[in-house]
């Protein structure tokens, strides 16, 4: 386990002990859960492993133990602190320990400072549990350990009288040692010399700013914002003395997205420093008498086509309905929230009909430098609909340099939160048509006017259906029971089914 994660875990345990010793145990929430898991075909179904913050059971028959402890803020205090830990132990044909969370946070007025691993998402949608997942950060992988300063809730300066409110965050994280491409060490009469570099320490730069137009009492509200993520680090070590930026200058280039390098001058290809991506989000919210309506759109950017609106066809579109009359005391069948989403990412400024850009097709999540692309510990950080090479069916056409072999997707997704008598249900279903990448398409990969025909076969178009049903029921004395059932059917992933039986105790 990474030394930084160990430190955060130890600190959190010490804080918990300190809390208990001061007779504040009533403010700490603890729950323990035991699961019996079973999956078929040596595969964990799609929605059983996707957007679970890396908390995934083993394939086959296994048992899992999950422990959580957390302390939230006291709403009556202007300055307060909290913490959280969550750990999972999987026991089966193998064993695995997962630290899903371990963080400390402090609130002072509108500001929050946090440190550690948290269950974070990035992007505007209706509900992390019901959504198919944000483009930027969906909660699919473990959280990257980081330090963050934020305004987590909408805040309106007094001069705006609640008409305009903002929220945002700025973070620095540690992504650990990542595989990178061979680097150009020199270029001269003898040609280009490439030096292999296995792994380098890398970091995460992340920031976001969102605004809301409309007071808290208005029925109609408009939301908008942008988020920006970069994996970067150790450029001087990689390129040697030809890299001419100081650490402060390098961070400036990372934070602003300014391009650096020129083959003719220092042998470094001109490009942004690090792997950049994010989304520009828009939403309209309206309060009806019995339900709340939210319509939202995430516009994607990766290598720069969004500046010319060349990939504007791509995006995540969502409609969410929240039942304002829902109560836990109701009986019969009742719905709490419903979300429908449509994901389209086939364009990428790479279709023959698309506007050409110098950077070429976006090739979402893949990066020529960082071989793992937009992933962390083998799991994609963004939407799980973009398929990594370690989960797709063997034999799928792919470019060997791509970690994500399918990022041209058309997907329909439904999420439903409902109750029937004393049982609470969460349903997710999705259907997708998957078209690989432009490297495995008839159009080929593009960079400006340069077109590279497909050299590794054609991916074609394959369909995939995935479903997930979770049920929970509260019993007496803090106990609850439940189950999860999931299934996959299609040609992108291996067909599989899964069942989890669980019992939980809240203290």
Automatic annotation (TrEMBL):
Q: Which UniProt keywords apply?
A: Signal
What Gene3D superfamilies does UniProt report for this protein, alphabetically? Capsule assembly protein Wzi
What superkingdom does the record give? Bacteria
The signal peptide annotation in the UniProt record is: 1-23
Name of protein:
Capsule assembly protein Wzi
Source organism of this protein record: Arcticibacter pallidicorallinus
Show the taxonomic lineage.
Bacteria, Pseudomonadati, Bacteroidota, Sphingobacteriia, Sphingobacteriales
């Amino acid at each position: 386990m990474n030394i930084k994660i160990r430190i955060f875990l130890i600190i959190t345990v010490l804080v918990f002990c300190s809390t208990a010793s001061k007779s504040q145990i009533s403010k700490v929430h603890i729950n323990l859960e035991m699961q019996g898991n079973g999956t078929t075909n040596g595969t964990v179904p799609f929605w059983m492993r996707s957007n679970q913050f890396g908390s995934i059971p083993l394939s086959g028959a296994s048992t899992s133990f999950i422990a959580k402890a957390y302390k939230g803020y006291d709403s009556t205090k202007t300055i307060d602190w909290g913490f959280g830990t969550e750990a999972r132990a999987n026991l089966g044909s193998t064993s695995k320990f997962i630290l899903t969370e371990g963080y400390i946070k402090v609130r002072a007025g509108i500001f929050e400072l946090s440190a550690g691993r948290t269950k974070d998402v990035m992007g505007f949608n209706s509900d992390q549990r019901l959504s198919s997942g944000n483009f930027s950060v969906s909660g699919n992988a473990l959280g990257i350990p980081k330090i963050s300063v934020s305004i987590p809730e909408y805040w309106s300066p007094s001069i705006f009288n609640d008409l305009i409110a903002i929220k945002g965050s700025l973070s620095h994280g540690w992504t650990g040692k990542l595989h990178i491409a061979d680097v150009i060490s020199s270029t001269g009469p003898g040609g280009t010399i490439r030096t292999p570099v296995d792994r380098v320490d890398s970091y995460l730069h992340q920031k976001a700013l969102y605004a809301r137009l409309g007071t808290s009492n208005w029925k109609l509200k408009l939301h908008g914002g942008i988020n920006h993520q970069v994996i970067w680090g150790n450029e001087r070590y990689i390129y040697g003395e030809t890299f001419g930026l100081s650490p402060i200058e390098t961070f400036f280039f990372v934070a602003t997205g300014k391009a650096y390098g020129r083959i003719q001058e220092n042998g470094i290809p001109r490009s942004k420093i690090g792997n950049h991506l994010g989304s520009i989000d828009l939403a309209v919210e309206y309060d009806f008498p019995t339900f709340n309506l939210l319509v939202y759109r995430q516009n994607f950017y990766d290598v720069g086509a969004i500046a010319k609106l060349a990939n504007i066809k791509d995006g995540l579109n969502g409609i969410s309905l929240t039942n304002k009359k829902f109560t836990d005391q109701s009986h019969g069948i009742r719905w709490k929230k419903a979300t429908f989403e449509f994901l389209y990412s086939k364009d990428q400024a790479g279709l023959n009909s698309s506007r050409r850009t110098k950077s070429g097709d976006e090739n979402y999540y893949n990066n020529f430098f960082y071989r793992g692309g937009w992933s962390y510990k083998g799991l994609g950080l963004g939407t799980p609909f973009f398929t990594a090479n370690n989960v797709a069916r063997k034999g799928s056409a792919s470019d060997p340099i791509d970690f994500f072999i399918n990022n041209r997707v058309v997907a329909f997704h439904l999420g439903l939160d409902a109750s029937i008598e004393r049982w609470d249900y969460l349903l997710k279903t999705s259907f997708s048509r998957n078209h690989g990448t432009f490297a495995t398409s008839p159009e080929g990969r593009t960079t400006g006017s340069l077109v590279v025909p497909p050299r590794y076969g054609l991916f074609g178009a394959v369909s995939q259906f995935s479903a997930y049903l979770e049920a929970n029921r509260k019993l007496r004395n803090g106990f609850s029971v439940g189950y999860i059932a999931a299934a996959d059917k299609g040609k992108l992933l291996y067909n599989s089914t899964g069942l989890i039986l669980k019992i939980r105790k809240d203290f």
